[in-house]
Amino acid sequence: MPVTTTHPEYDAHYAMWEQTRDCCTPGAVKSKKTKYLPATMNAKPGKVGSEENTRYESYLARATFVGITGRTLNGLIGAVFRKPATVELPAQIEYLIDDADGKGNTLEQVAKSMISNQQSLGRHGLLCDSPAGVPGMSQEEATREGIRPKICEYKAESIINWKEQGGKLILVVLKESRERSEDKYDHDCESVYRVLEIEEGRYVQRLFDEHGEQIGEDIIPSKAGGAPWEEIPFVFPGALNNDPCVDPPPLYDMSELNLGHYRNSADFEKNLFIHSGGTLFVSSKLSADEWKTMNPNGITVGADAGHFLGDAGSATLLQLEPAQATDEAMKRKEEQMIAIGAKLIDKGAINETAEAARINATSETSVLDTIVGNGEDAIVRCLQWCAEFQGADPESIKYELNKEFFDRSVDPQTIMAGIQLYDRGIIAKPDMVSAARRAKLVDSDRTDEEIEDDIDTNGPTLSGFESVSN
Fold first, then answer.
1. CA dist list (Å): 59 to 25, 26, 54, 56
2. Whole-model pTM above 0.90?
3. Which of 145, 90, 85 lies closest to 384, judged by CA?
4. Which residues are registered as beta bridge partners of 163?
5. What is the mean pLDDT of residues 356-360?
6. pLDDT digit string, tens, across residues 70-97
7. Is the pLDDT of residue 349 over 60?
């Protein structure tokens, strides 16, 4: 089979990825016209200027797509990165903090992109890669020449095929795009396919064009010291876990509701446009000539003009109420989107107790917590591979993402109860310091040792707080 062959799971999920991605991308949904807003009997895209095309363009223009899916995604990413990650790297790979992918993107930017794709599509790809050096080149020479490992990102749509054997990844096919025009003003691109595979027990890279012809020679990456790789340094950070199997897109259900809301809005706006203007019916016994004489300027609707209708003449303005079903359907979908995590929609009159809000927030972030844990593990694995490329100690690496997605406040009564427990020797001082951090009485960046030193230097101790409160 050709190198362009796609995995069955890829084919099964591609439409869901595309829809979710479009709902998170401003302007994408309306630009695809009938893909997301079907044509009606008398309104269809076609020849420009035709009556049916004009009707459809008006139908499309009046429709409102509210980017709830994309805004929710942005809010979730903001919750994760409201605090910076904790990063400790050996000196040989500290450069990754400022340039993780070789393109100038920081490690935090790569992590944000990864979490965004995990949350929206449930799948992403990270490849630890290093440019091939001259055979026999030492590690020091390679570093001086800028030949050093990097973390390359691949979206779910670019990971077209993969295979495992005995629980070990033995093949990954990545679709890439590169410029093929020599004109500096042109942006013509072509697809190329990067194949990562285990062959005769070692990791090999090959590049192919869209016709299946190999480009260049085989690339055989090696660790520091020249030892070949026995695994493919590629990881699949996902929504459920980091194995090659495709996970369900977490925001797909919301995208479905978002598109349903969009179609309802198109019908609602069309109905409102048609019915909001009234239709005037006039009856009169006047002849056509008499009518023109009595009403030389025709009929003007409104209070600024009067009209002579003759004996037994009458006028009736018919103005229909717009259908309310579509409006109710839109409101129902908004409530459903709120229920599955659209926190950026205001529920208005719905009031919650502080404890109920905390419980709801905890349940809503449980999926995000899993995603962040998977992403954190994937970044750590890539950093360990980079360390092996550079001859550094993989075990010295520390990388932790923020998992406090919302403020945890502690009420004054709890603080006073904690002080009393501390004074009676029931809980330890570190427990009180931890409570003070959650209450934002203590800067979260300060260590227990720093706080202890300040207390010893400046006083008073925690036991002194009780007398102050009294």
1. 21, 19, 9, 5
2. no
3. 90
4. 171
5. 50
6. 988 998 899 899 999 999 999 999 999 9
7. no
CA proximity to 193, closest of 206, 204, 180: 206
Are 229 and 222 within 8 A, CB to CB? Answer: yes
Name the least confident of 171-180, 194-203, 295-304, 351-360. 351-360
3-state secondary structure labels for all residues of the chain: CCCCCCCHHHHHHHHHHHHHHHHHCCCHHHHCHHHCCCCECCECCCCCCCHHHHHHHHHHHHCCCCCHHHHHHHHHHHHHCCCCCEEECCHHHHHHHCCCCCCCCCHHHHHHHHHHHHHHHCEEEEEEECCCCCCCCCHHHHHHCCCCCEEEEEEHHHEEEEEEECCEEEEEEEEEEEECCCCCCCCCEEEEEEEEEEECCEEEEEEEECCCCEEEEEECCECCCCCECCCCCEECCECCCCCCCCCCCCCHHHHHHHHHHHHHHHHHHHHHHHHHCCEEEEECCCCHHHHHHHCCCCCCCCCCCCCCCCCCCEEEEECCCCCCHHHHHHHHHHHHHHHCCCCCCCCCCCCCCHHHHHHHHHHHCHHHHHHHHHHHHHHHHHHHHHHHHHCCCHHHCEEECCCCCCCCCCCHHHHHHHHHHHHCCCCCHHHHHHHHHHCCCCCCCCCHHHHHHHHHHHCCCCCHHHHHHC
Residue 153 confidence (pLDDT) above 90: yes
Rounding to the nearest 10 degrees, give the CA dihedral for residues 238, 241, 246, 252.
-60
**308 CB neighbour count, 10 Å cutoff:** 12
Q: In what order do the strands lie in the sheet with 124-129?
A: 150-155, 124-129, 234-235
Judge whether residue 351 has pLDDT over 60. no
- pLDDT score for 412: 65
Q: Mean per-residue pLDDT for 159-186? A: 91
Quote the longest CA-to-CA distance of the chain.
109
**Tokens at 262, concatenated:** 């969009």
User: What integer pLDDT is reported at residue 459 of this predicted model?
Assistant: 55
Rounded to whole angstroms, how far apart are CA atoms 356 and 20? 30
pLDDT tens figures, 400-444? 999 887 766 666 667 677 767 766 777 787 877 777 776 667 777
